[in-house]
Design goal:
By secondary structure, this protein is of the alpha/beta class. 43% of the residues lie in helices and 12% in strands. Strand 4, helix 7 and strand 5 form a beta-alpha-beta unit. The structure holds NADP nicotinamide-adenine-dinucleotide phosphate. NADP nicotinamide-adenine-dinucleotide phosphate binds next to helix 3, helix 4 and helix 6.
Length: 256
């Protein structure tokens, strides 16, 4: 009885904070196991994807882990995306896209405009923007219409136009900026049918994976396990009001 009354009062206080100050009270998030009862990971073979998969499994989620190397899921090929996803049944409270590439076919990030190559740029868009977009097209309807759910895709802070102080890395930056726009737009569409869903772009920090091995330099890095912990903690703390935004591993919004 006392517990119920205390809970009711806490809820009233949260509402009051919102109405008085126009800020959302710290949300009581669904428990990780609640929100991630069933999880679908795309890119589960990657450094971050495999760590996310392991962390969710440790937390008791029923995880479907898909990748190109293990399942033939090539995100740049819509037929492949559809075919592999059609093999998977049911709804998922969490869909996490951990695919991506910085260097493709021997083409690394450009330092100057003179290094720009049309084919290399197309390849970047294909993997880093079109691929996750095709996954959204074929997987977002697998989020439950009722109850909390989440779609998240790994973007990168370098995709932020506002945060770009260094230039360079043209193709990767613009592909990630385009991915951010896709996620923002898809979140608007998703809200019409899935009122409790969160759809976000994430920056994982600089993580010790194959992707960064040649490029991390003196940047402070974290292990994939730490990154997975950070990213899942961020997702756990988000509410539907924050859907459509871009967050870093600390849960801070990244400007577009
Ligand atoms: N590591 C970082 O510091 C960092 C920083 C900022 C953003 N990110 C972003 O985080 C994401 C994951 O990075 P990571 O460091 O974990 O990289 P990673 O270890 O190199 O893993 C890349 C993953 O992407 C998959 N992949 C690549 N091309 C694919 C395709 N055409 N179809 C299907 N899967 C494909 C790979 O699958 P297979 O191996 O099975 O082929 C692998 O699972 C990327 O989007 C990256 O831009 C990473």
């Amino acid at each position: 009885m006392f517990m119920r009354a205390t809970l009711r009062k806490a809820r009233r206080d949260e509402k009051a904070l919102f109405y008085l100050h126009g800020v959302e009270a710290p949300r009581r998030p669904p428990t990780l196991s609640g929100m991630t009862h069933r999880s679908l990971i795309i890119g589960a073979s990657g450094g971050i994807g495999s760590a996310i998969t392991a962390k969710l499994q440790q937390n008791g989620s029923e995880v479907t882990a898909l990748s190109r190397s293990a399942d033939g899921l090539d995100i740049t090929d819509e037929a492949s995306v559809k075919e592999v996803l059609d093999r998977v049944e049911g709804e998922f409270q969490l869909i996490f896209v951990a695919t991506g590439a910085l260097e493709l076919n021997g083409n690394g990030p450009e330092k100057a405009l003179k290094e720009l190559d049309a084919q290399a740029m197309v390849a970047q868009f294909s993997v880093n923007c079109i691929g996750p977009s095709l996954v959204m097209k074929h997987a977002l309807h697998r989020l439950p219409r009722n109850g909390p759910s989440c779609f998240a895709a790994l973007s990168a802070r370098v995709g932020s136009i506002g945060d770009n102080k260094m230039g360079g890395w043209y193709s990767y930056r613009t592909a990630k900026a385009a991915l951010n726009q896709m996620i923002h737009s898809a979140a608007i569409e998703l809200k019409r049918t899935h009122r409790e869903a969160v759809c976000v772009a994430l920056h994982p920090g600089t993580v010790q994976t194959d992707l960064t091995a040649k490029f991390a330099g003196n940047h402070p890095t974290v292990t994939p396990d730490e990154a997975a912990h950070n990213l899942l903690s961020v997702l756990e703390g988000l509410s539907p009001r924050q859907s459509g935004q871009f967050f870093d591993w600390q849960g801070e919004r990244v400007e577009w």
